Amino acid sequence: MAQHDDSGRAADQVVHSIAERIRLGDLPDGQPLPPERDLMEEYGISRTVVREAVRTLSSRGLIEALPRHRPVVRKPGFDAAIDAVGSIVTHLLSEPGGVRNLFDTRIMVEAALARQAAQLATRDDIAALKEALEANAAAVEDSEEFYRTDNAFHGVLYQIPQNPVLPAIHRAYTTWLAPQWSQMPRLPERNRTNLGAHKAIYDAILMRDPDAAEARLRDHLSKAWAQVRETFGDV
Amino acid sequence: MAQHDDSGRAADQVVHSIAERIRLGDLPDGQPLPPERDLMEEYGISRTVVREAVRTLSSRGLIEALPRHRPVVRKPGFDAAIDAVGSIVTHLLSEPGGVRNLFDTRIMVEAALARQAAQLATRDDIAALKEALEANAAAVEDSEEFYRTDNAFHGVLYQIPQNPVLPAIHRAYTTWLAPQWSQMPRLPERNRTNLGAHKAIYDAILMRDPDAAEARLRDHLSKAWAQVRETFGDV
DNA sequence: TTTCCACGTTTAGTCATACCAAAACTGACC
DNA sequence: GGTCAGTTTTGGTATGACTAAACGTGGAAA
Asked: Which residues cross the membrane (chains A, B) (predicted)?
């Protein structure tokens, strides 16, 4: 029996093989992976290698490996992709200008979304925006809840184009920028300011005015950024 | 001595610790990781765990682990992040509508970039665009070269905002969408069409007309998409 | 002196075995 | 039929061993 692989990376072949089986639906979503002992027999490898393969698959986001449970196949969605980069992004954000750069892309993306919303939003989209806005308004006194509804309002913008990539990006932004936000002082006063900004954006979309929608949104996020700067200085 | 960790995931702690040391510059970029034997002693763990940790760090993109070499610390750039998701994205693109969804975000992003370019491009930016356009024009008869210069032209758009995240995104798009493109028929005729589109975009930016720039760009990429559809049908 | 190669020394890759503790399963008991 | 205790799996880790490739060193050759 070939005890030693020729290429020097037997684990990678197993990773590839299992990844392929997942992609082809051979290992369906939600199903637990075969036990490590079975896999070692199946591939003719030691458990060491199996474990390394499982590890890799896990950090690639193709399986979900909770501590003492059987790894579960997780057919990756766009947000699994977001998870996979989380570690790197953390590093990047800790570098000077990192947060700024990320936030700038957020401004750019949401500006484009606001513009698109003003042009293409359906009646249902507008209704969803209105609902989110009202939920946001109802929470001005509860900063915790305001934070959630604030996010939800922005989230509606990401849903309007009906592209599943976008909500994943929204989740990425909120996840990665959360550390900054969670340390910021939350005051009903600020909530009211932000609510006003949300309403302005909503109005511009309602008026089908892309330029205004973009401008209001940029203004809103730029002010949010100014608050971050106030709290953290340069980041 | 505590032979078994209480949490059930000693490796993750090691991963976190080493990641932190990399982030803080304790393990500088380009330096090889300490030998596995040293790490096991340092952390008081077995080699099994060390290896799993190294594996994880590697697939997270924080170190580069060539087959039989010492893993090398690789302070991740934005494009290391792109690598990390490659595996998942492959899966996503193989599903119906996957390529379409990704390409739509590209249209959205580049539309925003074109708009921004029309508003904010400096003289140098315009010069860079012009240069890229001329290189593109010089390559109409050489489809291979035209492909490269085409990419480069779009790449300039991603460079204008001076945000390092954006070029990484451009690389991501070209990498992930390359499989489709590389199988498409390349004809000087099509090259000329695309060149004309590029020129139209350039002109709009030169005229400082954001609406026109966005419109020309959307038109350009939509036609490119139509060609993809022609070649592959629904993807 | 510089270059280059043979040699011994690390070190990553893998295997085999063993143990523990937490899950998962099974069956008896209420 | 539902609950709980006991048994069997299964993941997490440790230990030791062996192979082959990479590395480092010093001496021989140019």
From this structure: none
pLDDT of amino acid A215: 97
Instruction: Report the alpha-carbon distance of residue B128 to residue B126 in Å, rounded.
Output: 5
Whether residue A17 lies within 8 A of chain B, CB to CB, comes out as: no
Per residue in A37-63, pLDDT (tens digit) is 999 999 999 999 999 999 999 998 899
Nearest-nucleotide field for A4 (CA, C1'): C14
Question: What part of A 101-160 touches B (C-beta under 8 Å)?
Answer: 101-102, 104-105, 108-109, 111-113, 116
Do A67 and B7 make contact, defined as CB atoms within 8 angstroms? yes
Q: B10-73: what fold?
A: Arc Repressor Mutant, subunit A (1.10.10)
Measure the CA–CA gap between B62 and B67, rounded to whole angstroms. Answer: 16
For residues A150 and A173, the answer to whether their CB atoms sit within 8 Å is no
Chain segment B84-104, per-residue pLDDT in tens: 888 888 888 888 898 999 999
Q: Where are the domains of chain A?
A: 10-73, 79-232
Q: What ipTM was reported for this prediction?
A: 0.84
- As assigned by CATH, the class of the B79-232 domain is mainly alpha
